[in-house]
């Protein structure tokens, strides 16, 4: 992804690690973990975590026995991830991975696609994942929903402000989200546009999973996530609904999976 000054400033606030460890962001984290644990090859396998940030997912993957290399363009992220036991971390670009051909068992792109606003760059990043994964290996990519900004800003109350409404409505119209105040710039997918990008990268057969469903928009979401019994029920409910086509766009994030041809 483009390491613009604005994007560097956004991630140097060091909020991404905490976003997935607290509050309703935990739903995205636990659902990503749930899906990946069902589809990853058995440990020990080689997992390349591209755009892996500070290692939020690399941490549990290594604890599960995987050999994890993390690549991220942000120096702060690489520095933080390198401190994790068992994680190798270095700087790199998703569109030009510093990794040999067919050298890993799975590639995770849990952030890059929503910072690449040009379709050609997103396809290039997916094609790079195909290049470095072994035959039969897994490619998993996260995308933000085209409608997430509208949903989130209404949930937060910021939709009341014209500045925020313009950002949310622009994202819903063409997918590009750019918020000067926060510094976040990215791309939000219509769920039905993702299959073609995967196909153009050489991955025609995919599976799609809505991560949060509608539950991330519930006012008492934290109460459910704080209570182990209620949390288990919610996670089970979303697992049952995760691939219903009409519900994919309600999730804030979607995970798309494919396997390289043997």
Characterise this structure.
The protein has 262 residues and is of the alpha/beta class. The chain has one domain (5-146, 188-259): 3-Layer(aba) Sandwich (Rossmann fold). The protein has helices at 5-11, 16-19, 25-39, 56-63, 75-81, 119-132, 148-156, 162-174, 194-200, 221-226, 228-241; strands spanning 46-50, 67-72, 87-91, 104-109, 133-145, 176-178, 185-189, 206-210, 253-259. Strands 1, 2, 3, 4, 5, 6, 7, 8 and 9 form a 9-stranded mixed beta sheet that branches. Strand 1 (46-50), helix 4 (56-63) and strand 2 form a beta-alpha-beta unit. The protein starts with a helix and ends with a strand. The mean pLDDT is 93.
SSE layout and pairings?
Blueprint (H helix, E strand, L loop, with lengths): L4 H7 L4 H4 L5 H15 L6 E5 L5 H8 L3 E6 L2 H7 L5 E5 L12 E6 L9 H14 E13 L2 H9 L5 H13 L1 E3 L6 E5 L4 H7 L5 E5 L10 H6 L1 H14 L11 E7 L3
Helix pairs in contact: 7-8
CATH architecture label name: 3-Layer(aba) Sandwich
Please summarize the sheet with the most strands.
9 strands, mixed
Rounded mean pLDDT is 93
User: What's the number of helices?
Assistant: 11
| Unreliable runs | none
| N-end to C-end Cα span | 29 Å
CATH class: Alpha Beta
- N-to-C series of helices and strands: HHHEHEHEEHEHHEEHEHHE
Helix content: 25-40%
Number of strands: 9
Q: What is the percentage of strand-forming residues?
A: 15-25%
| Total tally of structural domains | 1
Radius of gyration: 17 Å
């Amino acid at each position: 992804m483009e390491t613009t000054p604005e994007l560097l400033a956004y991630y140097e606030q060091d909020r991404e690690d905490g976003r997935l460890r607290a509050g309703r962001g935990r739903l995205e984290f636990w659902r990503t973990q749930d899906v990946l644990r069902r589809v990853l090859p058995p440990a020990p396998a080689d997992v390349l975590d591209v755009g892996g940030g500070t290692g939020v997912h690399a941490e549990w993957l290594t604890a599960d026995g995987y050999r994890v290399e993390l690549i991220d363009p942000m120096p702060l992220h690489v520095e933080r991830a390198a401190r994790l036991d068992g994680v190798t971390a270095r700087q790199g670009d998703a569109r030009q991975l510093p990794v040999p051909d067919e050298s890993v068992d799975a590639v995770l792109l849990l952030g890059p696609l929503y910072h690449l606003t040009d379709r050609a760059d997103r396809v290039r990043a997916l094609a790079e994942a195909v290049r470095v994964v072994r035959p039969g290996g897994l490619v998993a990519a996260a995308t933000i929903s085209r409608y997430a900004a509208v949903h989130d800003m209404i949930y937060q109350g910021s939709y009341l402000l014209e500045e925020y409404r313009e950002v949310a409505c622009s994202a819903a119209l063409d997918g590009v989200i750019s918020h000067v105040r926060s510094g976040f710039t990215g791309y939000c997918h219509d769920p039905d546009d993702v299959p073609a990008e995967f196909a153009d990268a050489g991955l025609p057969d995919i599976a799609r999973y809505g991560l949060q469903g509608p539950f991330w928009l519930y006012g008492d979401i934290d109460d459910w996530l704080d209570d182990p019994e209620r949390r288990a029920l919610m996670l089970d409910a979303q697992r049952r609904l995760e691939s219903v086509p009409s519900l994919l766009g309600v999730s804030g994030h979607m995970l798309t999976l494919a396997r390289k041809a043997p």
